[in-house]
Amino acid sequence: MKKLGLLFVTLLVFFSFMKAQEIENQTYTDAFQKAYRTCPTIPPGLLEAISFTNTHCHHLTDADYHHEGPDAMPRTYGLMGLVKDGKNYFRENLHLVSRLSGISEAEILESPEANVKAYAMAFDSLARVGKVSEINGYLSVIQQLSELPIGEEKDVYPMQSMLYSVCVFLNDSLRAVEFGFPKYDIDLKASFREHYDKLAAPSLKMSRLGDYPGAIWDPAPECNWEERTKEVSAVVIHDTEGSYAGSISWFKNCDAQVSAHYVIRSVDGQITQMVREKDKAWHARTANGYTIGIEHEGYVNNPSYYTEAMYRSSADLVRNICSRYEAINGLRVHNRDTLDNGICLNNGLYDLGGEGACVQVKGHQHYPDQSHTDPGLYWDWDYYYKLVNDGTPVAILEGEEGRLDHVNYGNDEREIWVIRGPEQSVIRLDFSSFDLETDFDFLWIYDGDNVYAPKIGRWNTNSPGQVESSGNVMCIEFRSDCLTTDAGWEASWTAVDTTHVGPEIIEPEAGVFPNPTDGVFTIQSNQEGFVDVTVFDVCGNVMASARFIKSIDIDASNWDAGVYVVNYGTPLMLGKVVKLVKL
């Protein structure tokens, strides 16, 4: 009953969130459309492409930032990502846009509509001066309005990367449908010429300069890193609190005194390496000496940046690092979120140990002596762990019954079992004992044949008791950390025939069922075992629940007349709709 109530609360929150997002997206759509009406010569989709590249079409304010200090990248604001304080490195394009548009900086910062309109007016002004009418000319205008530095060799790649991302967005048919503009067909090779090979994919030549074959090599200057004196034994997962191109550029700023080994782009998982792994990048204070730092484009409070492409690209990189450093074990990727006692390890700072700690791949927020809380609550560590450790052997158990005991388990374990019964059966797993190290060793059970199937639950301090799948297959996963073990568990499993599992429910005819104010609701079953029955009203409120073998009488004296749903068996099985009618 508790899980059902949680489900309804979750759905309510989800739909409320979706409604809020729908309103926000509509507001932003209106803002872009009004800007095009003000400046009709700007090609449709161009403003959205620039906004998405800079901010993922999110109106950035100070509330979106969780990093502060001299090493933090200059903040960008609004839908278009304009810089107010460039820290003597980024260009302060907020001032330029305000001057060219005649709209005050305060209004540009506060209003999404004003932010886009001001940018559009500034863009239109520069395009008219340059008599621009084709894509390369428009790219020149975008460059003029960008916050990224220009003029030196080190500035070329970040700027070209930003412009390339704008063009890729315009060429994307799915983005065209999503944002409502005609798809472009920009010849990227012709537009970016000598930069194309580096922007599109890492070449063999560049890969040899770096450590990871899947990365573009674009080094940070020696002023932002130093020689390493310790062995590599851990990895730090960061987010950039800024754009991909902006982060690459910022790591070339000697005054920032900051760098990372790798930077990963959100939209497609592209990786740029900026510091050799043999050298110490400056990214996590006292953890710099023994760690490799990986920056992921995005913000702590914006889950849209953590894409499937980014997760997979980052996991491939970490898997490669683990293969090259014996001291780093992929099974020691952080994979806990909220503990049974309610403590959330991914919200704010939570020290999971420094050099020599069990958890070797974890967030910036998880190392000692830190002030940054990235990658934050929205980074899916459980999923990331699975990707890094993809390929773990799976034990297959088949038949009608058997045992799944795992007693006196060891450290650094990841065990996966798949139980498969005959067709037309469900898997019932019964635990007679269960004892795992509190807060560190966990059991997952999934409703399917792999660890990516829907999760039935995760257990640590409490026994699962009896768990049942919705079909004839169930997946069980166990993980232990590097220290301290416990007794484990003893369990048996049975493939329960569902051919006649469903109880025979006698549906009362309209006008015959007793008045709910003083009646009794009777349910009968021909099943030999017990059946759990729960009755809900249409709003999801529990009216009654009971367990029965042959038949059960449920008191309906306090019900109002109306439609009720009888749910029997597991929550995933279909229920029976019963119409209750007052006499």
Architecture overview:
This protein is an alpha+beta fold and 583 residues long. The chain has 4 domains: 169 residues; 187 residues, 3-Layer(aba) Sandwich (Lysozyme-like), CATH 3.40.80.10; 99 residues, Spermadhesin, CUB domain (Jelly Rolls, Sandwich); 61 residues, Immunoglobulin-like, CATH 2.60.40. The strands form 7 sheets. It has a 6-stranded mixed beta sheet, sandwiched between helices. A 5-stranded mixed beta sheet has the order 11-14-19-16-17, with no helix packed on it.
What is this structure, in a nutshell?
This protein has 583 residues and is of the alpha+beta class.
Which key terms come to mind for this protein?
Lysozyme-like; globular; disordered N terminus; 28% helix; 5-stranded mixed sheet; Jelly Rolls; 14 helices; alpha+beta; 4 domains; 583 residues
Walk across the major sheet and give the strand order. Answer: 3-7-6-9-5-10
Provide the gyration radius in Å.
29 Å
Tell me about the biggest sheet? Answer: 6 strands, mixed
Helix content: 25-40%
Distance between the termini: 31 Å
Under CATH, the topology of the largest domain is which?
Answer: Lysozyme-like
* Tally of contiguous helical segments: 14
Identify the CATH architecture of the largest domain: 3-Layer(aba) Sandwich
Structural class: alpha+beta
Structurally, how many domains make up the residues?
4
User: Beta-strand percentage?
Assistant: 15-25%
The CATH homologous superfamily of the largest domain is termed Peptidoglycan recognition protein-like
Q: Report the strand count.
A: 26
Shape: globular
CATH class of the largest domain: Alpha Beta
Give unreliable regions as ranges. 1-23, 501-515, 570-577
What's the pLDDT, averaged over the residues? 87
